[in-house]
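Note to self: user wants both folds in one dump. Writing first protein now.
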Amino acid sequence: MIYEGFVRFLKFEKRYSSHTVTSYLNDVNQFMAFLQSTYSFQIECENDYVKINTKQVRNWVVSLVEDKQQASSIKRKVSALKTFFKTLQINGIIKNNPADKISTPKIPERLPKFISEKSITQLYENKVELFEDTYDGQLQFIIIELLYGTGIRRDELINIKLTDINWAKKELKILGKGNKERILPLGKEIINLLSEYVEIRNSKIENSEVFTYLLITSKGEKLYPNYVYRTVKKYLSLCSTVEKKSPHILRHSFATHLSNNGAKLNDIKELLGHSSLASTQIYTHNTIEQLKEIYKLAHPKA
């Protein structure tokens, strides 16, 4: 019952994604396993939660640091624990939150990894050779096109419904984090591409149960995370040497290329669906290629 209430709080109060809910549950379970292995302490009834103290939580965080876990991962784990104890407070099971005063390691500021404009252009120019002339080939190109062309997240891509597309206005409605809606522009080329795909999809796929969703696999299934990941990794490997080849790289590339070509930070923020401008400011960096060009043009000794 305790965990069920925690899950409901995450889903309906915090409006977290299913991925985040699963991560938070795993984090709490990891802490409980730490209590058992380190202190021989096990939760057997609701009253046992009162016995958990700040020192135990702090020692858990220290153990995570000693295991050399990433600062971002530790920060999420502590956040999960704080939220878990908060639900216990709300339900009157505990009075004080033992994780409240726990601080986490500072996350080092890192510039986002992205694909160069040259590499993206190369991928598009070689579309005919790289993408098979099959249903899967067309679906995979659309995945790349939507991720890079709109900057949406993987989960947002998977959950696009046919009704989210305004064909006349060339607009796409996206339901992002926290159920926050945003409207994204679609170019004429991608609208035509999607229209052609939907026509082929409807004639090929018989599973009408998933027809409300835009993207469907050749097996008649709703698009799933691993399919998207494998697709992105496959095609980015053909055009780029960047180490990490995930769907999020295309989101970073979308924002970076907009910034490098003069888009205003506020506009990029709206397109990405960020709630805070601070999240968008990482894209104000210049690429080394840009800096070289500026140097060549501006420095007399270049």
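First done. Writing the second protein, which came from a different request thread.
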Amino acid sequence: MHAPGRLRARRPWLPLVGAALAVAVVCALGMWRPWIVPSAPVAVEAESAAVSSAPPALALPDQPRVLVFGDSWVYGSAATVPSLGFAYLLADHLGGETIVDGVRGSGYLKPGLDGGSYGERVAALDPAVDPDLIIVEGSINDRRLPAKGYGDAVNAVWDSLTSLYPDAAIVILGPAPQVLPVEPATARIDDDLAALAAERGWWYVSPLDENWITPENYLQIIDTGEIGRDHPSTAGHAYLAERVAAAIAAMSEATDVVADAPLDEDIVAP
């Protein structure tokens, strides 16, 4: 209660302060805008990172020596004879020689029917082979095993290969679907291998992502009978050899995106 006869002192600056504070709050919110998720800058950064981390083009000799390492698909299972498997046929497509090392049932973690796991088999490779290129295929044989420890096993195999053949280029060929739809565990293996290869700056080929085997061509590629047991048929192996050769050719022709950009002196004024 105010004393009678006294007027409160007026504070004409209060409305001005309030207005200034309101403007400051509005400006701050305008700059912060927590409800807006940045998208364009992130996309640009991701795209730049993808370009900068792209593997370099393969530089293979005219008659390359290629080690094809993998499971029963590399072995040539379900072909009329194993030598009609895609790994053998690849030699003609690449104009060189393939050294085929395929073991049925083998994987990065799983021992095979005629040999050990990938790690055990790499340890037994001949250092004198001296390949120009190594293609590591598969493997769907790991799909029934726990995912824990898979990445460590893969890295151990790849480290052993680079130590044994330090001058060889390495391409990772992911698992192809033996059944459709693709089993979740096979898709998980494909994703894991792709990520691990990217960390090393290696080329990765994904038959799953590139739709090599679809409902439309499945029965022309995969032998579902008692003998084939969901492995590529002779015709299927021939098809796979063509797809792998085309992938290798594309890697050999790959160039840096920046290198294709015109230089200032190359631009002709209209």
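Dump finished. Worth passing along: The beta strands are 65-70, 97-102, 133-137, 169-173, 203-205, 222-223, 231-232.
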